[in-house]
């Protein structure tokens, strides 16, 4: 969430950073709420929590002092469904918060036509605990820590029951593959960006943001616009959930996935790293994949572009290299084809 | 807002209080969001902000380090109405935040069938900046800082256009009086409880809460239940917006106003004060009425009951004294009949 309604500090950043009256400390906080997009209430709760915390992680903050939960129960659900669904969603949210080393101690619940789930994450930091997202320099390398294509996967999954939609894409993907991709997207969205946040410090990241509603290019543009130096972000590679690029193409670029503007939910971090650190960052992300952190083979990170001198904008090159990211556990995932091999463009 | 979804510290309190990793400081925060209840979008924004901040004020906290705004725009509004209404609501929220000495630096906006407005208030405090709401002792006096009856006033105002509803109450109130009461309720709900929060320190308040959705008795019960000592709250007097008790009676106690369970929005603080301080607290509240703080004659405060030894519950005596609080600016308001004259019950 760029701090949308904000003025002053928060604007354009994922969080607002408020200098406190007490010894050099800052209050960093963010809020986010939206509507369910996966069918599993427990996973939806995890995704909502991961999405809220992601704004802190994008600033290299690995700790969170408190979370509040924002919920609305749908007036259109009967009592039985409410009692089945809402506790699971709350539990998923709490479990993800616990995985992030924090807890939910407050919140507000209302009745609404639609279900809403979201929250607030707050932390009080010393200056060395967060990385202001404005330090990119020419020569930096851009890294992305989750594959793109979550929106396409979620929609394709809904289309399994919509023949005229399904007919558009059935030539490029099987129902089985759609289900796999949907599962993969769900786990990816539910994965905390906390590991990446920690590694941002270890490898001296210069700036980062998280990729959500505006898509990779939208958030890359926001990040570029905030830089102190006159830089431009040039994106050469697009790591995308397997087959999602083909689906996007098959329905006439409905999603603009390859154009970089397909919305993501709880996407990865886009991180600007010193050139000599990027490969190490990626391999450490990969080696920590499949840990308690919850990142499977789809975790890890990919070098996607470079920082040049420029006018504080981001662009994707013509014909970017598509890196197909296979579902975790699949044959392909166990080969090494999602390693951060620098593309020709970078060598 | 009792921290509804909370566990641990926050529960039952208006805010959650999180001990921080840094030198004895605590993060105190609260969130609240709901649906518009008055027609004026600017005033609705002020009311929403006053309602969020009220949870901090109830702990004697007068400063707020940051606010986030939570908004939803109704999908049912046309573009023109959205552009007229939402900026006014945001402006009202921001203006009230500024009056509270804080500012809004972040938030989230979504599209929803219904308009939602609310926010998050956060502050990092030293221990002496807040008053834990658990220190009431037998002999304390209960003070209320805003009159009751906001829900009745808002509903009566809607009934002006609903003949069969209006016919039920037209014998006890004129349309003019309903409009006056509605205005009065609106200003009362938009008034910050910040003055009261400051005076809680000056007069050594032992505990407080703010009166909102559960009504006076509901919140009095919540507060009584949290007390360290075995105390009971006994309420003798009910300060109520003029004529609202009559309306509530006329429609068969639809609201249970005199029973103490009529919902309030952004109501006053219910404060437990040492007996010898209560009258001074009230007269200082009254003398600060009509200041920049925004409290007119309806501001001030009323002694409404006492704290006895008991089983941590609250009750309203049989046949409580109704204190009719006239609209500001009215003849009656300029007389002294809303002064905190202790009732016979207290002498």
Task: Provide keyphrases for this structure.
347 residues; alpha+beta; 2 domains; 10 helices; disordered N terminus; disordered C terminus; kinase (chains A, B); PurM-like_N (chains A, B)
CATH topology of the largest domain in chain A: Phosphoribosyl-aminoimidazole Synthetase, Chain A, domain 2
Task: Identify the overall geometry of chain A.
Answer: globular
**What is the CA-atom radius of gyration of chain A, in angstroms?**
19 Å
Which sheet architecture does the biggest sheet of chain A show?
6 strands, mixed
- Pick out the low-confidence regions of chain A: 1-11, 291-298, 336-347
Number of contiguous helices of chain A: 10
Q: What spatial order of strands do you see in the largest sheet of chain A?
A: 7-9-6-10-8-11
Biggest contact: A-B, 50 and 51 residues
CATH superfamily of the largest domain in chain A: PurM-like C-terminal domain
Strand content of chain A: 15-25%
The level-1 CATH class of the largest domain in chain A: Alpha Beta
Query: How many distinct folded domains of chain A?
Result: 2
Give the oligomer, counting copies of the same chain as homo and different chains as hetero. Answer: homodimer
Helix content of chain A: 25-40%
Span of the ends, CA to CA of chain A = 34 Å
Q: State mean pLDDT of chain A (0 to 100 scale).
A: 89
Helix-strand makeup class of chain A: alpha+beta
Number of DSSP E strands of chain A = 11
CATH architecture of the largest domain in chain A: Alpha-Beta Complex
SSE topology string of chain A? EEHEHEEEHHHHEHEHEHEEH
